Amino acid sequence: MEEKNFLKNYIMSYDKIMNTLYVLFCNNRKRLEKRKIGVTTFNYPIDCYKIGNGKKHVLLYGTTHGSELVTTYFVLEVLISLLQLSSEDRILQEYTFHIIPILNPEGYIISSSNVLANVSSVSLEKIAAEYLRVYNQDDEVAMTGKKCPKAFYNVLKSNIYNIPNHKMARSVGNILKNCRLNASVLPVWTANGVGVDPNSNSIHCFKEIVELRRKQKCAYLRYNDIPVTIPSPMSYPGVGTFCNCPENHSLYQYVTGLYTMNTNSLNENKLIAIFSYHSTGGEIYSFPNKNGMDEKKEKLYKMGMEKYKENVGYTIIDPETRYGVMDYYRDKLTDVLCLTIELSKANANPIGPFANIEGLNREILNNKKAIIDTIDFISGN
Ligand SMILES: [Zn+2]
């Protein structure tokens, strides 16, 4: 793929993203397919774009967590890069890409509308650097176990009236009230519009994650004032798998549908990889559970992660708990490499990753290359 970034704006409003996608779709009707794979509680479509004619299928998605705005920027960049290729290009002949730019539109809107009320494309890098600095200071205090007001909340001025959808704004207002929080947490909102975190809405370990949250009571570090046992801005799993979490359900149905190709021996098409993008930390979380892991699967994951790492230099993490939604796919799908990538080595959602634009641009290019190198590698090219 071409060594270039294409989008001018790093943080776009939801409407602007939908417009950009609409223009891309209209200009590439012959080779870009669009499919609505679900609808959120407040009626936003969850769209998936398909490009390529290859038998090996790859799914990429961004913004599971609302505030991880950089992931949608990245996934859109990947889509545009693929559209720059000629239809005859090897990559599009060998692979079919399924791309979901925003899995959690409601969370994206809640976070981005408050960010965009504070920053323009001109001021972004400067404000982001200040935000990152204050955020890291707050972390140092939080690490001592102290619970005190966070200074980073004051860098961006937030208000529920920045959220353009009144019904959703009302829901958000009620969640804040019940959590005894004020509007300053809106930029870091990772859940959907009814306060369920799509990544915590575990498919295979729901009871375990509820128990874990009961013990935690509040989120970690600088978020240690945010409850995780009631509908909240982050980490609340909901009352049951897929309950009030159409984002998770839509993804599940789509992945399950794609995976039928793998279980049908007559079908030559196969799903080979899923890349789920999160942000901050520059980490790769992808070890499947040891139970049920065979030699072949272990090799696929070890080598797949190492290959991805070669391009980006991220740290491979073996987490203690594996209750997240992607962990389900890692356990369940035997022959698919399911990677969770924490984009951006910088800390501080939603704008920390934009504190060094030059560095971010390089990371975006490296991640694009990492995707192609990884899928080529696992499919024996
Ligand atoms: Zn995340």
Please describe what this structure looks like.
This protein is an alpha/beta fold and 381 residues long. It has 2 domains: 14-106 and 245-378, 3-Layer(aba) Sandwich (Aminopeptidase); 121-223, no CATH class. 41% of the residues lie in helices and 13% in strands. The protein has helices at 14-27, 69-84, 90-94, 105-116, 124-143, 166-178, 206-216, 246-263, 295-312, 325-332, 357-378, and strands spanning 32-39, 45-51, 56-61, 95-100, 270-279, 283-285, 315-317, 337-343. The chain has an 8-stranded mixed sheet with strand order 1-2-4-3-5-8-6-7, sandwiched between helices. α9 links the parallel β6 (283-285) and β7 (315-317). α9 (295-312) packs antiparallel against α11 (357-378). The longest helix has 22 residues, at 357-378. The model has no long low-confidence stretch (mean pLDDT 95). Bound molecules: zinc ion. Zinc ion is lined by residues 64-65, 68, 278. Zinc ion binds at residues 64-65, 68, 278.
Kindly list the characteristics that best describe this protein.
381 residues, alpha/beta, Aminopeptidase, binds zinc ion
